[in-house]
Amino acid sequence: MSLRAHQLACIRGDRELFSGVDFEIDAGDALQVAGANGSGKTSLLRMLCGLSAPAEGDVFWGGRNIRSLREEFSSKLIYLGHANGVKDDLLAWENLVVSTTLAGAPVSSDDAHEALEQLGLGQAADLPTRALSQGQRKRVALARLSLGMSMPLWILDEPFTALDRGAVAALRVTIDLHLAGGGMVIYTTHQEIELAAKRALTLDMNTGRLC
Predict the structure, then answer these.
(1) Contact present, 183 and 27 (Cβ < 8 Å)
(2) Helix-strand-coil percent breakdown of the chain, rounded to 5?
(3) Measuring CA to CA, how many Å separate 104 from each of 64, 150, 189?
(4) pLDDT given at position 185
(5) Which of 65, 107, 119, 189 has a CA 20 to 30 Å removed from the CA of 162?
């Protein structure tokens, strides 16, 4: 299975953020989307997971246009954007059970507690999410990843932001395990992060070059 972007373009108002974006990634590949603020990194990620439509171009999953796949494609990916997407009224572990259930891959409360433990949130698992710090809330959202190894495509917008050193290391291990199992990761980050990918690629949104 592969994900291919073909001649993608994005226009906001009267400004073209990017055009002619072309790449293809396969099992085990990691693609970092790099560029200055305002270069369209988040807009591109949202196009790749089908949340917004490109001004030009198409996205293909396994050779098929994602516009025709809809829920089938959505069931194959995890998208974590800037917003954590956690519910304040739920306990930390309940957030994981609800989010995985909505994604069609429900987990048990024990699995949710274990995932939070891996990111150093074991003692906070039974607390209301509203009582957690911003960094802890970010880790609640990221805990979905260790529960979503069966989802082949992960699209992650600044996943390492607001994490301490230990949480960054734990997240790297989770992503590396996903890649080793044949998963694909597309991500943005302002940090120097090395992932154990079959191919570690970088798409520079300032130049449109893939390297």
Answers:
(1) yes
(2) 35, 30, 35
(3) 22, 12, 28
(4) 98
(5) 107
